[in-house]
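Illustration 12: NAD kinase.
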Amino acid sequence: MSEPRRILLVVHPARPEVHDHALGVVRRLNAAGVHVAVIGHEMRGTPLEGQPDLLAAHPDDPTHGCELVCILGGDGSILRAAELSRGSGVPLLGVNFGHVGFLAEVERDDLDVTVERIVSRDYTIEERMTLEVTAFHDGETVFESWALNEVTVEKASRERMIELTVEIDGRPLSTWGCDGVVMATPTGSTAYAFSAGGPVVWPDVDALLLVPISAHALFARPLVVGPDSQLAVEVVPRTQGSGVVWCDGRRAVDLPPGARIQVHRSEDPVRLARFAGSPFTDRLVEKFDLSVHGWRGTARRAAEADADRG
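Figure caption equivalent — predicted structure in token form:
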């Protein structure tokens, strides 16, 4: 006898407009024989609290026994789900109830079709690179974490710049007085790195990005390096003020002068559930509301060529 099917449902707890949609998802999945687990304490005070059709996720291993994590929310909720599923290999499927929603696979209007495809397992899996980060001070490890989008080293005070030395593959590159440095994956190239002036990198490109933030230097351009490069940032000992390292804007630790932060590709990617959808170019156009006025398209050009020949 086969094991019962089970998914983890992650819902933004502070978005009341999502809760009714979540109840509908739970009922339709249950009717199709798919059990739904939630993180109990995140559902307190919402219509999902105490629902008899819901299972309680294991507090230490929320994705245990799950074939999928379905997220109703924005990119922040998807990053939260990535934390919950870290190391499990369980794929994430995001339904956008936020603003841009670059990590989400579908929009809220596609929720009915999404439930049908979960039931029929009609999706593919795409792996996204992640980063490992370790911070040291005085020879001791003071912080270890990971990131799907980016690791940033930033100044802790608005009044002062921070002085950072950047190292690539064990060799010094430059020392900058700046607001910080972003080290990003291709997935994160459309997030903080993009806002800091970095390039958009297609998700199927194996590369790491390094983007300085407001650096006071002649050479302070975004860099794209190989996927196996070893990146390091040191807070110059004589710098005034301290810094902070952030992972995906969610996990952080303060950095005193002299701290060293090392970043490299992780062996543990995030797995995203994907429907057979539009190319990444179309996603950029949609999410950034880009103008494509004047583009005729290959089909239209072919039709015009046929008319000219006739």
